[in-house]
Amino acid sequence: MTPSRSWKVRRIHHNDHVEIAAATFHGEPLGRWHAGRARVLPRAELRPAARAMTAKYDNQFRLFHLMLLIGASRKHGGPAVGLEITLDTEPRLPPADGL
C-alpha cells in the first residue's frame, strides 16, 4: 500500500515496467535485479491485499497502515492504493553503476 498521489503510482500509470531487488533497510541492493510489471490494484482488490499483508506481517503492517492513514490526510498523500508486482522469469545482473 502506498499513497495514491505518490511518484511511483503516477509512474506506474504511465509505464508499468519495474525492476526490483532484495535490499537492506536503507535501500542498498543485496542481489540480482528482477524485471517485472506493476499494476495499481482496483479498490475491490485492496481489502484482500491488506488482509494478506496483516496475516503475514501482523503488527508491523498495522503500524505501517496507521502511518499511511495519517499521511493520507496530508496535502500530497492521497488515499492508499495497493500495488501488485508480477516478476518476469529471469533475473538480470545489476546495472553497471551499481544501482
Give a verbal description of the structure.
The chain has 99 residues and is an alpha+beta fold. It has three helices and five strands, in the order βαββααββ. It has helices spanning 7-14, 43-57, 59-72, and strands at 2-3, 17-20, 33-40, 80-81, 83-92. The strands form two sheets. A three-stranded antiparallel sheet has the order 2-3-5. A two-stranded antiparallel ribbon has the order 1-4. This is PPOX class probable F420-dependent enzyme. It comes from Spelaeicoccus albus.
Largest sheet: 3 strands, antiparallel
Question: What order do the strands of the largest sheet run in, or round the barrel if closed?
Answer: 2-3-5
Shape: globular
> N-to-C terminal Cα separation, in Å?
24 Å
Provide the domain count: 1
What is the gyration radius calculated from CA atoms?
15 Å
Organism: Spelaeicoccus albus
Protein name: PPOX class probable F420-dependent enzyme
Compact description:
The protein has 99 residues and is an alpha+beta fold. It has helices spanning 7-14, 43-57, 59-72; strands at residues 2-3, 17-20, 33-40, 80-81, 83-92.
Which structural traits does this protein have?
99 residues; alpha+beta; three-stranded antiparallel beta sheet; two-stranded antiparallel ribbon; 3 helices; 5 strands; globular
Blueprint (SSEs and pairs):
Elements: E1 2-3, H1 7-14, E2 17-20, E3 33-40, H2 43-57, H3 59-72, E4 80-81, E5 83-92
Antiparallel strand pairs: 1-4, 2-3, 3-5
Helix pairs in contact: 2-3
Protein name: PPOX class probable F420-dependent enzyme
Organism: Spelaeicoccus albus
